[in-house]
Amino acid sequence: MIPLLHDFTGARVLVFGGGTVGARRARTFGREAGVVVVSPTFVEESFGGAARVRAAPDPADVGGWIDRTDPALVVAATDRGVVNDAIATAGHERGVLVNRADQSGTDDRTMGDVAVPATVWSEPVVVGISTGGRSPALSRVLRERIEPHIEGAGEMARVTGKLRAALGDTPPTQRRAAVRAVVRSDRVWKSLGDSHTKTEQVVSEVIASELGETE
Hints:
Layout: E1 12-16, H1 20-29, E2 34-39, E3 51-54, H2 62-69, E4 73-76, H3 81-93, E5 97-100, E6 118-122, E7 125-129, H4 136-146, H5 153-166, H6 172-184, H7 186-191, H8 196-214
Parallel strand pairs: 1-2, 1-4, 2-3, 4-5
Antiparallel strand pairs: 6-7
Helix pairs in contact: 5-6, 6-8
């Protein structure tokens, strides 16, 4: 499978299943989408503000739920394989993206299926980790190892985004060199936890040094 990023802002995600996996999917997609979770019962953990509907759809009912909610993605996370089969079939027939929580291996997936990777967030930076469904435990361990290494990455993304805009009239070669120098600078990374004024000062010094060397 090839990893892609999808913007769910303003979209709806329909989750069937109120267990731990359903709750986790609801929290993940609730960062951007409006999430509806359908289940006869719900575990006692956060669903990230999702709308929860107590119902136990039979296989024949799931198509109607999809039609009424018009989701961009449907998640099959129930404990009944026949219901998950019906959810996947109905989603595929309607051209909706499908995530089957009960089928993690790549050999189980069909056209239109998507996998939800283990993710590490430092907004707006996101890192996705997948083992192709072969080792969820390894995905979790890799996520734990990566988390400390992207601390501050979100702030660095914001700093360099503003920098690229500010250097808009600079020749492209110099602009790229300046941004690379900032991203690679330990001084800049260390300053990110300080005031914006100090960070801007350090960035200016790094850029002045870089541009001076490239002129």
